[in-house]
Prior knowledge:
The complex is a heterodimer of chains A (97) and B (157). Chain A has helices spanning 14-28, 43-49, 75-78, 82-93; strands at 2-8, 36-42, 55-58, 69-72. Chain A is an alpha/beta fold. Chain A has a single domain, classed as Response regulator (Rossmann fold). Chain A has a four-stranded parallel sheet with strand order 2-1-3-4. In chain A, strand 1 (2-8), helix 1 and strand 2 form a beta-alpha-beta unit. The longest helix of chain A is centred in the first third of the chain and has 15 residues, at 14-28. In chain B, helix 1 runs antiparallel to helix 2 (39-49). Chain B is globular and about 35 Å long. Chain A binds chain B through residues 8-10, 12-14, 16-17, 20, 43, 58-61, 72-74, 77-80, and chain B through 46, 49-50, 54-57, 65, 67, 89-94, 110, 113-114, 117-118, 121, 124-125. Chain A: GO terms for molecular function: protein-N(PI)-phosphohistidine-sugar phosphotransferase activity. Chain A: This is PTS EIIB type-2 domain-containing protein. Chain A: It holds the Pfam family PTS_IIB.
Amino acid sequence: MKKILVACGAGVVTSTVAMNKLKEAFDEHHVPEDAYQIDQTSIAQVASMADNYDLVVTTTQYDGAEGTTVLNGLPFLTNIGVEPLIDKAFEVLGFQE
Amino acid sequence: MSLADTKLIVPQLVADTAEDVISQLADKLTENGFVKDSFKAAVLTRESKFPTGLPTGAINVAIPHADAKYTNESKIAVATLAHPVKFRNMADTTQELDVSLVFMLGIHEAHGQVATLQKIMSLVQDQAHLQKLLGMTTVDDIFADVDAFLSDLKFED
């Protein structure tokens, strides 16, 4: 089970959009639902939570990354540059596209 | 009930800063009773910490918003800007974007905000649609277009 943390300013609005897009991408590539878990939080909580996750995706700027890979989820909001982001996420998680 | 309202649409809004744009739109929402008096300050604070400029292409958009607790009723204020105004990029706060269209989200239902945002996202990803909105000069034209686009939004509690 791979664990993914999605974060935005308040952990409610744009992270939900990003989370849904990520789920859609997993579905599209037939990643089984029990292969991953996605949690949502605010950017302020990321530093204390990131160690327990395989991948962090943030829609707002985040500079405090150590260890866990942090990807910028803005493409999920603008639809520009989505494919490279998905490629990278799959690579980090070890999922097959 | 529609999320759009003719009283919340400002064609060719004149402003020099993001704060000015936010203030003017928040005032519209406040004057019409759709948000609490604390809404404007909440949006301004939020924008300073977590900017909402989106690099959507030739036409950039900003989506300032605040927590649902600052609102009374779900509404969206829309402004086309007379000249582009700099908003900071949501994903890279050191970068400034020239924003031409602003959608201020005042959404009362917590889950509704997400649905609204996804709908707005599909709009801001459509440069042709943004171009069409920017070319509109009257409240009625912008209202008709935005209202039709948002009309299939359904809220869940």
